[in-house]
Amino acid sequence: MHADPKGVLTGVHFLDGDHACCEGTLAAGARFAAGYPITPSTEVVERFAWRIPTVGGIFIQMEDELAASIAIQGAVWGGAKAFTVTSGPGFSLMMEHIGYAAITETPCVFVNVQRGGPSTGLPTLPAQADMMQAKWGSHGDYSIIALCPNSPQECFDLTVTGFNLAEEFRVPVMMMLDECVGHMTEKVIIPESDQIAITPRRFTHESPEEFRLFKPKEDLVPDMVKAGDGYRFHVTGLTHDERGYPSMNVETQDRLVRRMQDKLKPFSNGRALFEAVDLDDAEVVVVSYGITSRVAQRATQMARAQGVRAGIFRIISAWPFPEQHIRDLAGRVKAFVVPELNLGQMVHEVERHTAGRAKVISVPHAGGSVHKPEVILKAILEAAR
Amino acid sequence: MQRGLSQLSHTTKLGLTEIRVAGFGGQGVILAAIVIGKAAAIFEGAYATMTQSFGPEARGGSSAAQVILSGEPILYPYVTQPDILVVMSQEAYAVFSKQLKPGGILIVEQDLVRIDHPPQGVRFYGVPATRLAEELGRKVVLNIVMVGFFAAVTHVLEPDSLRKAVADSVPPAMQKLNLQAFDKGFEYGAELVHRMAEGGGDAEQVLTLESEA
Q1: Which of these, A6, A152, B136, B194, could form a disulfide with A20 (CB 3.0-4.6 Å)?
Q2: Are residues A70 and A178 in the same domain?
């Protein structure tokens, strides 16, 4: 299936990451957004509110982030593709409903343009300090997909991908931008609508009599229905059986929670999204994501100029973590260098999957700016020694 | 379907050029930077990254934007030491003039920025952009007058690319006025460069010429 041309602003543009992300939502088919404004994410929905009347759809500015994050889920069960947008403090407020989206398997997208924290922190300045929160912030065992664009172009491309993955796996997808990528303006190419592949909602072909709301298909993901199609259905945050009704016993819990985790397994391995640069002969690999990956690339170029064989493994899908790739690399490189705009988050995942087979060097930054390339270079040179 | 940084443009000969545009909020500082970035990225097929200042330096009614232009993908997103500084307010001059790269280009709105001791070792150009914009009947186009002047005195980008970027960045009803503003700034700049060449022009002579004008 291809994108609906009504939502696709085909052409060559000069856009910031937030606006490009908005165009990505429209191209992906999102026709409902709810949000509560917060710097540095507001521009995404500001543009959506401006664009949506001509495309056909709804934007609601809600009373807070709790309301926004559940309004979108109502819209999804009503048949729409929907998303919300926020930054750190709002993301914290949305945690309850991220868990609700996970257990009800509601395909939706949460855009988090990360700023410095904790709490109100640095509203106008970048950080990448919500990476663990994206995975672990809501209570209970659940799985999500998180994507990290490093340019306005990727804010467009990956937002489309994010919506598609949400539909395929029926999970909430986190678009983990950072303020720097969100607010930087660059060339963005938006292709013709027939060049944009769209994953449609997996609506059931079964009759209302035979249909069961949470009966998994072969890929462990159940098909869906929407309100008004003549199916009686019950959606609850309680542990539920295949019919969708509360069933609070050990067996049902075990089956449901394990399935929600297992359905994303293909993604941890073969389907992880990443970019590899100069890995063939690399002795030191810089693992990074978002804006930091661009600075890291500068640093590896400087290292190469000094004779150090440095390469880049750029994480694009941060969750599920691309563990297979790190394991494979760990067996043949000397060290990983992991710069992030936080005091060490994804570096722990790198360490875990390296399992002592290579050095892992964290290059932390408390946020508010990006690393100086020289700081990452220094870590690469030390790692190579 | 992701497109990596290197797939966005063709490599061109444009050298790495860092530009900062600064002034009051409302002068169109950001739009001026967008026009410059767009000219490079869209109309010259090069790379351009624009960022706005959201930090403490952007408070108190001031506004600043940074553009990096390059023939290669731009990896580090922030401007550290601009090659070209365009200032439209005294405050912006005070804050940013010391950061200009030695041998860099300083462009000022000469009626709004008084310079008692011009920085040494830079090329300096002044333009009465607000006055020129007023001659067109609309003070708001002073930013585009500045862009036209920038085109004439820097030669970093093709004037035609910048002109197209102006047309592409304003509402259709405002296109004619903005293109007039661009041309006015460009002509003023071209004339200034011509006079400098005749006078053997170094930075001090430009200053003298401007104060006599």
Answers
A1: A152
A2: yes
End-to-end CA distance of chain A: 51
Q: Is the pLDDT of residue B120 over 50?
A: yes
Of A183, A197, A273, the CB nearest to B51: A183
CATH code, domain carrying A341 = 3.40.50.920
**A240 within domain boundaries:** no
Contact B13/A at CB under 8 A: no
A-chain CB neighbours of B52 within 8 Å are 183
Write down the pLDDT at residue B117. 82
Q: What is the pLDDT of residues A144-175, one digit of tens each?
A: 999 999 999 999 999 999 999 999 999 999 99
Name the CATH code of domain B5-212 (choices 3.80.10.10, 3.40.640.10, 3.40.920.10, 3.40.50.1580).
Answer: 3.40.920.10
Contacts of A109 (CB under 8 A, 6+ apart): A25, A30, A82, A83, A84, A159, A162, A163, A166, A172, A173, A174, A175
How many Å lie between the alpha carbon of A169 and the closest alpha carbon of chain B? 19
Cα nearest neighbour of A300 on chain B: B75
Q: Which residues does chain A have within 8 Å of residue B78's beta carbon, measured at their own beta carbons?
A: 369-370
Q: How many CB pairs under 8 A join A and B?
A: 85
Per the structure, the count of domains in chain A is 2
Alpha-carbon distance values, A119 to A44, A88, A189, B18 (Å): 22, 7, 36, 34
ipTM of this complex prediction, to 2 decimal places: 0.93
pLDDT digits (tens, 9 = 90+) for B15-35: 899 999 999 888 999 999 999
